[in-house]
Input
Amino acid sequence: MSLKLAAMFNEEKKDGRVRAGSQPAAYHAGAAKPTLHKIIFLLGLALVLSAAPLLLHAFADNSAPPPAITINTSAAQPRPLEDATTQSVARVYSQAWTDLDRALTRNDASALNAAFVGFANARYAAQIKQQLKAGMTVHLIAHSHNASAVFYGIEGASLEIRDDVQLERQVLAKGKIIASETKTIPFVAILTVVDNGWKVRVLEEAQQ
Amino acid sequence: MKRSTSVIKQRASVILSAAKDLGSPPRAPVRPILRARSLHAKGMLLFVLILTLPLFAADLRVPPQITAGKSATIGVTGSGTLYISGPGFAAKHEVSDGNFELQPEETRAAGRYLAILKSRDGIVTRDFTIVPDETVKLIFQARPSRVPVARQKVISGSAFVFDQFDNLITKPTPVNFQLTVNGATTLNKNVTSKDGIAWTQTNSSPRAGAAQFIASIGADSVRRVVQQVASDPCGLKMHAQLVGDQLVVETDPVRDCSGNRVPDGTIVTFTAQEANGTRDQVDARVKKGIARATLPSMDAGVITVASGVTLGNQVRIGAAE
Output
């Protein structure tokens, strides 16, 4: 009988005696469980760590300035753009798109004030007011820009940009997306100098 | 055993009767035909239903293009919630079979719109475009507000073409620019707008005065005033007169090269250089077109006059003559 028991164990039998230090098979089966637990734990840890970049992104500081849109200035007339003006305009124009999305997503008209003035500010503020009434929001994702300055006033106080934007527009009702479309849409933007800085006065789709 | 024998007998009789039927001309069974016809009809009905199902599913019919400020009709099949989203506009309405009217005040902002019908059948999305109205509104900038006369390309004007609802009209539109001074037209030019902007640049006229700079499209026009002022003094002339023990020097009316009187307040400098090397200088402002100064008398010397970069005549006094 003892030999049979020994046969169950995974050890060499010598003299019919069980070798010291050997473990019963039943014990091996139990030992596999902790190893399995360890594997599952490590897998779970790896999963959590892989989500870390996403979490960091989600909680990232959104006040950092967006990457500037490149504006081609070779066609600007009647006056060529200076480098400093180009950089300043590009920064304001990029910020305008970010602010517009933020304003329409959160239904917060005050988010428009930094970059928008005049007709553009009034138009999108009116849209936000109506979205609030209807329980809607809009999320704009500009996947790409192809922007060119086509007009720069001789006095240096007004500028027009023509921009083909690959724009994804998501319409949400009560927080759920009810429609989404992605299209390349030509936009026209007019910027003017206001309080020693550039602001977007007009941002509209060009008639095709 | 007896039971099984009777069952066998029954089955055998059925088989035999079936065999007889095979041998005899087939008799059209009435019930199967009716069943087949009924099945055929049902199949056809189902087929028709499938084909016409889209007609009964929820749908939207929108005009592809609407003019800003005009009403429009959206055809609705089915019932549900209609959402409209576009630049400057958002709305939600409960709708059912029929037509939904977009009011003129809802179509003012030009751009691309989405009409979304959410019903029990699902979500239907259609897009449409609102284009600017035909009525034009000009926004005109003229720079600068004050220029010297007779200068090249110093006056510029930029006209921005909008419709009455503040939509930028990007299609090419002819804009007329006119510049008149004291009734004389110095510029009358048509420029076609590009992406909603037309601009021009012109010279200031030789005549000083309030230039009327006008941009117009059809009946709509905007006027700006550009003050044209005399340029630098030209042909500066003075004369000197001994009054008591003082020399009074006075210019002729100070004018620019076009004959326009320079503005009062323009600085004129008189310089008296004596023969012994002593030098006196007096700045005088133009008043009513004339500059005047009093210098100490001298036995001999030269008096000169200048304004800005313009040098006038010289007057020699005493033995230096």
About this structure: Confidence is low (pLDDT under 50) at residues 1-29 of chain A.
